[in-house]
Amino acid sequence: MAPVAGLGLAACAAPGGSSAPTPTAPVDLGAESEVAKGGARLYRDHNVVVSRGADGALKAYSTICTHAGCAINKLQGTTLTCPCHGSEFDAATGKVLAAPATEPLNELPVKVSDGRIVAGPKG
Ligand code: FES
Asked: Kindly report the CA angle at 121 between 119 and 122, in degrees rounded to 5?
């Protein structure tokens, strides 16, 4: 049997090393058409969620949970759910919908370039 670390909190460690809290360089996420008006899309590989308002404007947020730094891996509609302690966030606004998180998600710059969505880094 593998040695046990003791605290059992490894999955919720603060970001660092390989899991940067936000992109460190602009990332090409995909075709602009992948995010529908009023919808959202989670880009797990980049820890970014992109949503589009009713007016067609895009918003992007880091999906590193502001509670203890887990990578959020679930999006239903425009609601993001953190796997660690169940915090929920609104992908359209970054706001907290359910505790324990209290801080909104970090907003990232996002733009469309040649029909592709390009997000981050925070500048
Ligand atoms: S890290 Fe605790 S709810 Fe996300």
From this structure: 115
